[in-house]
Amino acid sequence: MSKTLHKRSDFIKRSMLSALVFLKDATLSEEYANRKGFLQSLDPRIKTISLLAFLVTMISLKSAVLIGTLYGFCLILAFSSSIPIRHFLGRTLFFIPFFSLCIVLPTLFSTVTPGDPVCSFNVLGINGTLTRPGIDGALLFVVRIATSVSLVVLLSLTTRHSELLKVLRIFGIPYIFVLTVSMCYRYLYIFATMVENIFTAVKSRVGVVSHHRHGQNVVAWNIANTWNRTTQMSEEVYMAMLSRGYTGEPRLLSQFYATPKDWVWLLSSLIICAGLFYSGHIL
Fold it and tell me: Where are the domains of the chain?
């Protein structure tokens, strides 16, 4: 019995710590933004405008082939920006696109999307028929989701968090929204570190919790303690901001400078978008 509880405890520990490590790596790491690559060398304003132009063009396209071409271009940009392709594919294919495929799966069948049948099957006495409009619509939906996620991931991976927030203010996003996102971003890292430290402290003092009531007490105490520490920390952070001259408008020391390379890239991006848009209307 104790051996089973020990294995279960180790599984919970590994799962929790792995989730915290993934959270820090996925949302808080600026490793790729600090690398020397093509997108990293561009002005954040120009980069944001160009990727936004690609996103708007992709939404307007109704051809899975053209959208797939744009997705291939995203892979080229990721490779030229020193982002491992395996890492990029893992973040753009195996989460949201896979979930969207599960959502759109019923539309493949004739009962939902009638049309020309492609193939029929019988599984456990259940008949099903895949239709051409259903397959085309599902493929277009999944490819569009994968490409849009890839564009957003490219921007987030190759741009420092502070620079991205400054770009949002330059584009007229209300400062309260930018400030809220910035504070949530910082608190997310602090919260992840706090949970990791609390879990380590509980393990060092309690060990394996062998009784469910004892475990409930430990969890309840940690929830209350985390809430109190979060409230106290928010007050301390606000007072620290006021003492440093905070007036409601976030300010950054970094300055943006557009070079000829940035303007060439922006012009090239607009030409590519126009070509895809024109090709989409022809097809």
Answer: 22-252+265-282
